[in-house]
Design brief:
Elements: H1 3-58, E1 61-66, E2 78-81, H2 87-95, E3 99-105, H3 114-121, E4 124-126, H4 131-142, E5 149-153, H5 171-179, E6 183-189, H6 191-194, E7 205-211, H7 225-241
Parallel strand pairs: 1-7, 2-5, 2-6, 3-4, 3-5
Antiparallel strand pairs: 6-7
Helix pairs in contact: 1-2, 1-3, 5-7
Length: 259
């Protein structure tokens, strides 16, 4: 093990991991409490964003945001993004300037403190083994998608290998058409190099949150779901394949903060 690898290993286990545990405890418990008192939306856009930003900084995540001009602050979107790493949650939650609810798999409900906080905030926790129950959970939550509240899907369903995109599932796009909400595609760059899926091989690096123009769903019907799904998947795939200015060995402190 060379000196750089030893330093990163020591930092990860002596600083980054303990900080993640401590911040999840110190922010997650009051976040759960205020959410149970009916302030879940406030807690999500303040305490949860603080948690995401603090941990991204400790992990040496440089963040560049592209496409903020495509957002309307009072508009609700069905947000879809590629999924490479556990760090994707920090990148979206910390730096996408919209109010949001996540569609999360049931297994995350069992994570201590974090699972309880997510449930209390009103994130959409689905059981992927029970299709009817998953659909019912999303339909209940869909009533809240007004006045700028958005819902976030990882339509691949699970994390993909670095640099790849798995086929998108149709659920997010059906919901968008049913509600008449625009689809907001995001391409996440660089998180797969910082923490690849299935490993703990973390290293600091630069990431980009690329916000694409929303895709209007007005006038679309059930028959258009597959085309909308393929269109969005192709858009994100092309963005990933195109040159990007990220450099995982670049300056991890060159960040653009939320306005």
């Amino acid at each position: 093990m060379n000196l750089l690898a030893l330093c990163l290993f020591s930092y990860k286990w002596l600083i980054a991991v303990p900080f993640l545990i401590a911040s999840t405890t110190l922010i997650g418990i009051p976040l759960t409490f205020v959410s149970l008192l009916g302030m879940g939306d406030w807690g999500s856009k303040t305490l949860a964003v603080l948690w995401a930003k603090a941990n991204s900084r400790v992990l040496g995540m440089g963040v560049d945001i592209e496409g903020l001009e495509h957002l309307q602050s009072d508009r609700s979107y069905v947000v879809v993004a590629n999924h490479w790493s556990q760090l994707d949650i920090l990148l979206i939650y910390g730096y996408l300037p919209v109010e949001l609810k996540w569609v999360m798999k049931q297994e995350l409900r069992r994570v201590p403190i974090l699972g309880a906080a997510c449930a209390a905030m009103g994130h959409i926790i689905i059981d992927r083994s029970n299709t009817a129950q998953a659909i019912a959970s999303i339909e209940r939550a869909s009533k809240r998608l007004v006045n700028g509240m958005c819902v976030v899907f990882f339509p691949e369903g699970t994390r993909a290998p670095p640099g790849e995109v798995r086929p998108f599932k149709k659920g997010a796009f059906k919901l968008a058409i049913d509600l008449g909400l625009p689809v907001l595609p995001l391409t996440l760059h660089g998180t797969d190099q910082m923490l690849p899926t299935g490993t703990l091989n973390w290293r600091p690096g630069s990431t980009t949150l690329e916000i694409h123009p929303p895709i209007d769903t007005q006038g679309l019907s059930e028959e258009d779901v597959s085309n909308l799904c393929r269109q969005t998947e192709s858009l994100i795939q092309r963005s990933i394949s195109s040159p990007i200015k990220n450099d995982t060995l670049g300056d991890p402190h060159a960040e653009q903060w939320r306005t």
